[in-house]
Structure formats: C-alpha cells, structure tokens
Design a protein that fits this description.
The complex is a heterodimer. Helices cover about 20% and strands about 30% of the residues of chain A. By secondary structure, chain A is α+β, with helices and mostly antiparallel strands. Chain A folds into two domains: about 80 residues, Gyrase A, domain 2 (2-Layer Sandwich), CATH 3.30.1360.40; about 130 residues, Cyclophilin-like (Cyclophilin, Beta Barrel), CATH 2.40.100. Chain A has a seven-stranded mixed barrel with strand order 5-12-9-10-7-6-13. A four-stranded antiparallel sheet of chain A has the order 1-2-4-3, with helices on one face. Chain A is elongated. Chain B is mainly β. Chain B folds into two domains: about 170 residues, no CATH class; about 140 residues, Cyclophilin (Beta Barrel). Chain B is about 10% helix and about 35% strand. In chain B, β16 and β17 form a beta hairpin. The chains are: A alpha+beta, B mainly beta.
Chain lengths: ~210, ~325
C-alpha cells in the first residue's frame, strides 16, 4: 500500500498497478474498513480499480494526522468482517433498437449477435467501481472475444439503461448522458433511485449476471 | 412567493454540496464559489448551509408577493429593485409587488442570490443542490424557467448587514491559478511543463466555450506527452480542481460533477484559488503557477483569515 497526498484535502492509497481481482479485493476491504470507522474527518471515499481516494475535512485534520490515525486503526483490519457481495440478475434486451453498436461489435469480433449475447450473458461480472455518474457500474472482466475500442467520437446522447462494452469492461448507463462505450443492449432495471437510500442498486464488489430478456 | 420573470442563461438552486456518497458516484454538485456563498449566508444571518440561487447571464428578474430581504454576492452586477439601484454584497429589503432585475454582470461569471427565508427545494441525500445531469435536488432537479414559483419557508427579517468592499474578491481576467503537482506530471516533457508553469507573459491558455459545472476546458498550446508513455490512466477517484490532460493535450479543470476520471493529472488547483473557477469566462486568459503543498496550505489559511473570518457574524 502506498499513501500519497492528493491535492490539499485528499489521500490517495494505491493497492496495485494493474486491474485484477486481488487488487480489487484489497480496495474493497479497505473501503469497508474506512466506512466502518465512521470518522467525521472523512467527507468522502472513492474506491475504484486500484486505488481508494479519501477526501478529508481540513478543518478537522491534516494529511499526516489522518494517515497516522488510519495506520494505527489498521491493526484491526484483519479481524474486520467484510460484507459479502450481493448478486444481481439484470435482464437485457440485446441488439436491434436497444443495441445500436451490436453490428459493430459483431463485425469487430467476427461473431454473430447470438454468440455476442451468449458470451456477454455467460459471465458473472464484478463491480470494480461505481462512478462517472451516480450508480454507473464499471464491471469486469469481459471475455476477451468481446474487447472493443470506445467510440472515437462519443455520442451526445446515450439512453438510460443502455448496456455497453469498452475494452475489458461492461457497464450500464444509469442516466441518459453523453458516452463513448459501444452499446449492445438495454435494461429497464433502475440503477439509481434518488428518493431513498442506499440510492444505488450496485456497490463495489457486487456481482452482476445479465440475462437476455 | 417569488415568481421568476426571466431565468437568465442558467439559474438553479445550490448549497454547500452533497457529500458522503461519492462511493456510488454521487458528485457534490456544490456551489462553485464557496466564499461568495458563505458571505451570502452570513449576510442573511444563516450559519448553516441554506439553499440559494446560482445564476449565469444578465437580465435575471423576479417578482415577490411578500415583503422580504435579499442579498446578491459573487460576480459583480448592477441590479435594481423596481428602478432603484441595489448595492451588491449587502442585505436589501423588498416590498410585496416589487420586481428585482439584475441588469448586467460587469466582472466574473456566476452570481448568487439569497433570501431571508429557506427556499422550499428538494433535499436529496442530505443536500438541496441541483444535480442537473441526473435531474434531482433543487427545484424539481432542473434550472429555473420563466413563470416558476419559488416558495420560502420561515421568512424572517435579518439585520441590514453589509460586506466591506475590501472583502469582495477580484475576478478580473487574466487569471492565475496556482496548482500543486499532479500524479502523472512525469508523463510530460520538461519543456511541456515549462509551457504550463513558467509563463509570466501573455497567458497561453484561454477558457473555451466548452465550460460548464462538470469542467472547464482550456485551449492553447497542446501539452505533449513524453514519447511512448501511456496517455490515459486506470480510472480512479478525482477531486475538484484536478487538471486533466486528455489525448489532445488541452487541459480540463475538473469541477463538482464527477467522481471518477481517466485522464492524466498534471496538477491540482489549490483550494485558495478554487472559488475563482466559478468566474472563468469563455476567452479569458489563464496562467498556471506551480507551488508546493505547504505553500498551498499557507495560502488557504491566509484566505481564511483575510476573507472568511472577516465576514459579518
């Protein structure tokens, strides 16, 4: 683990330099550890593929004081119980009007649409991070046969619920927004509900399985 | 009751920010100029976060149907109650039936309007601020439109406070933004860093028209990556003020609507200069100056002592 300052009010903790499940598990464990402390000094925690970013309240603490406090508390880390990941099944309407990039993915991968659907829905994905927009899951790892580059020019409008792929990842647009992932389908499942906690359907570490609808 | 006659270019409800949910991608969407916001709350006699209006563009106007008090801070404006000029950064009283109009913005970009009552806005995940992209919080999750009616709760009569002129910050272009080192600074050549940081003459960057609450894009000399280095990074958490360099080499300053980013980070705009980001207008010149983290902390303490602590209590 490597600790560095991140701007004036941030701490960046690096758990590894490549994306894999070991690094992810460390990030996830540390994220739940940080949450369990309920420190008022910590304003926000952003866990992702290889790092945890902490945003702290500089009126209450400083970079060095918070780092020492966390290092001291870390002794309890091994005894901490990490919540088990939840598993979600998400129905997807693949292709056609719901998946404007299905044809591209098929031709790029040299596969039929049925094969793309079978491969994409045949894996249980792990949520590596939630962000970009509220509730948007960055999930991996995609089957290598479906690795495709992002759009060179992002679309100005991607519909809410769109299921996309980009390089080794798959994700779901939780809101309508601009975006550059290749869209192969759409789900009606609501990923973010601002009216009630916990707001986001998915959290880091959760497992997701897509089923053709 | 307040009726919006002209919502100007963009007006919306904001507050100190939505915190504690960045782990599920919820950005703070906070007020962009925190100092002007703090001054506004303190003028109106509120210690805690209250919802206020963040407005861009001239001709914002509204009519009130009850007697109340108001104040305007942020960008320098000329404003009128009916035909009487209003002194910005001061509390002023308005009578039922009056019309308030902000005629023009003379310096800076965003101005803030607060009332002597709490705007009846939607509180989502602990904050009144509007998330425009996802359409929640604030006034039905959207900017104001002509004819909208704003209801106030707990209207009171505040003292006639004023903020001393020496406490009103300058927002004149060109702007110098001080930054501390970013995580991927070593991916750029020394000449490129020099382009960015050692520039006392004409600014090399201009604010592009592609600037909004998510980020400010700059245009100028493209920053060049060292040959053979990876240009993007594994996406990770970002905080306001991060200066990102995408493949085209044109800097983007991250504001308050994103929690994760994937571009190389060349610096972090220091906290003491972050309020100024609210006032960068398209075509304004921007310079960067590189300083150390201790210096940044010192400048923040100085700003607190010189500005924040001097506001009326």
């Amino acid at each position: 683990m490597d600790w560095t300052r991140y701007g004036e009010e941030g701490i960046r903790i690096v758990f590894g330099s490549t994306i894999n499940t070991d690094v992810h598990e460390k990030v996830r464990q540390y994220y739940f550890f940080l949450r369990s402390l309920h420190l008022k000094e910590i304003i926000d925690i952003i866990p992702s593929f290889t790092t945890c970013i902490i945003c702290f309240d500089s009126r209450l603490t400083s970079f060095s004081a918070l780092v020492s406090l966390l290092k001291e508390k870390e002794r309890d880390l091994s005894q901490m119980e990490i919540p088990a990941p939840a598993t979600h099944t998400i129905p997807v309407m693949y292709g056609g009007q719901y998946g404007p990039d299905m044809e591209f993915v098929c031709s790029y991968a040299g596969l039929s649409a049925d094969e793309v659907v079978e491969i994409h829905s045949g894996i249980v994905y792990t949520v590596f991070a939630v962000g970009f927009m509220p509730g948007f899951p960055y999930m991996g790892t995609l089957d290598k046969r479906l690795f495709v580059p992002r759009l060179e020019t992002p679309r100005l409008k991607v519909n809410e619920g769109s299921v996309g792929v980009a390089q080794f990842q798959t994700g779901i647009y939780s809101f309508e927004s601009p975006g550059g992932w290749r869209i192969i389908g759409k789900t009606d499942v609501k990923l973010f509900d601002h009216t009630a906690p916990p707001y986001s359907l998915l959290k880091i570490g959760d497992h997701v399985r897509f089923v053709p609808a | 009751m307040i009726e919006v006659i002209n919502p100007a270019w963009l007006s919306m409800v904001v507050d100190g920010g939505r915190f504690g949910h960045a782990d599920i991608g919820v950005p703070s969407s906070s007020v962009l100029d925190r100092y002007s916001y703090t001054a506004l709350c303190s003028l109106l006699g509120y210690a805690a976060d209250i919802p206020v209006l963040e407005i861009m563009g001239h001709d914002f106007s509204f009519r009130v149907s009850t007697d109340l008090s108001c104040a305007i801070t942020g960008a320098q404006v000329t404003a009128f109650v009916d035909n009487m000029p209003v002194i910005p950064w001061s509390v002023f009283r308005i009578k039922a039936g009056s019309t308030i109009r902000v005629k023009e913005v003379t310096e800076g970009l965003r101005y803030y309007l607060g009332f002597s009552g709490i705007i009846d806005a939607a509180k989502v995940a602990g904050s009144y601020t509007t998330n425009l992209e996802c359409r929640f919080g604030g006034y039905f999750g959207r900017p104001f439109l002509k004819g909208d009616r704003i209801t106030l709760k707990d209207v009171r009569v505040p003292d006639k406070r004023t903020v001393d002129g020496s406490l009103i910050p300058s927002m004149k272009a060109p702007h110098t933004l001080r930054v501390i080192d970013g995580e991927e600074g070593d991916r750029f050549s020394p000449e490129t860093l020099k382009t960015l940081f050692e520039n006392d003459g004409d600014p090399w960057y201009k604010v592009s028209t592609k600037a909004n609450r998510t980020g400010i894009r700059l245009e100028g000399r493209p920053l060049e990556f060292r040959k053979g280095v990876e240009q993007s990074i594994i996406s990770e958490g970002i905080l306001p003020g991060v200066v990102q360099i995408p493949g085209d080499g044109q800097p983007i300053i991250v504001l308050y609507e994103r929690t994760i980013g994937g571009y190389a980070r060349i610096g972090h705009v220091i906290k003491a200069d972050r309020d100024l980001l609210a006032h960068l207008r398209p075509l304004d010149g921007v310079r960067f100056q590189r300083i150390g983290p201790e210096e940044a902390e010192r400048l923040w303490d100085e700003k607190m002592a010189r500005y924040y602590d001097m506001l009326p209590k």
